[in-house]
């Protein structure tokens, strides 16, 4: 039995379509959730989970600013 | 927890780098000495004398026939890493042997097996035959990357970044605009990402090397065999020109772009790159152009990933990433690498 898992991009849409090697198929907007669904083989959920509700973005913490200050500038 | 997948073959060098001079390279955190026997075979063994850990690659260490002599006290090792002479006494301690690595020279690369040597024979080495195949001409190089290998995997699995990071070289708007398909072949251990542009601008990388002046049909078919070997099958043809029904493809230009992603340490990587073509085989000007252009592109990636590594190192773990459709292939590669790590 083939062990080929495939994810396509639905024509004209931003949705992804996934097909497990067992033949099970689903659609999702998020590749992480789609891979979670495909990787659950053979216990595929009814459908891929919905993305979580957005929360306010967190501040970006820096533990060692010296490291970042020393970064090189990318060449032009 | 280590990010390096063990019990795998990794590219350690190009065959041309290993000769009758002692050559050292760190692979997956292990310092390895390479040299070629008088019969032409590549050997790989630990680059530290068992006596006082002097690097065997360091002068005045040297080769003497098919033995390597430590430049500090004269411990002498054969091609299998076993010590054959120590100074001042005839008894050689049984533990006087260097770790020897399974090594294979194939497709212009020197591959070493990192992990349990008994598992080497049963672990296939992925192929990149175009690098050493009649009918093809290849240029290649290696750039040191001060970043973890996974950042380069992310980079190469999502070529939409060509549009932004490599504009003027290999990027055109169509790359980022064109949907991809992703396949995971678990039996073969391959992640495939395909992006096929029917009518695209021809970037300078291909316009100058092929001579095509108009718009092109451009196919990018990636095959990544984690953890090390990445192949991009690139097909360039005048817009609308497709392969024949029998599979022949005489009116297209084919370029095989190969990367070997070899961890040096947890946070640094050997970025081996090669570009093979099936046209203008003897044209040195085309070779020079592709070599310089691809090296420039690689260095653009290196500069960006070095910055990213510094940023990641200077920030706490645990940030939530955001992935979108273009990341489908990269996410698949990460999952396959995680499975390889878990299977150890």
TrEMBL record, chain A:
Q: Where is the composition biased (Pro residues)?
A: 51-60
Q: Where is this region: Disordered?
A: 44-76
Q: What name appears for this protein in its UniProt entry?
A: Uncharacterized protein
This protein's source sits in the domain of life called: Bacteria
The opening ranks of the lineage are:
Bacteria, Bacillati, Actinomycetota, Actinomycetes, Micromonosporales
UniProtKB/TrEMBL annotation, chain B:
Query: What SUPFAM superfamilies does this protein's entry cite?
Result: Bet v1-like, ISP domain
The residues covered by the Rieske domain are: 9-112
Leader sequence range is none
Protein known as: Aromatic ring-hydroxylating dioxygenase subunit alpha
To which species is this protein native? Actinoplanes aureus
Q: What GO molecular functions are on record for this protein?
A: 2 iron, 2 sulfur cluster binding; dioxygenase activity; metal ion binding; monooxygenase activity; oxidoreductase activity, acting on paired donors, with incorporation or reduction of molecular oxygen
Q: Where on the tree of life does the source sit, at the highest rank?
A: Bacteria
Keywords attached to this entry: 2Fe-2S, Dioxygenase, Iron, Iron-sulfur, Metal-binding, Oxidoreductase
PROSITE patterns, from UniProt?
Answer: RIESKE
Annotated CDD domains? RHO_alpha_C_DMO-like
Under the heading InterPro entries, the entry gives: Cholesterol_7-desaturase (IPR050584), Rieske_2Fe-2S (IPR017941), Rieske_2Fe-2S_sf (IPR036922), VanA_C_cat (IPR044043)
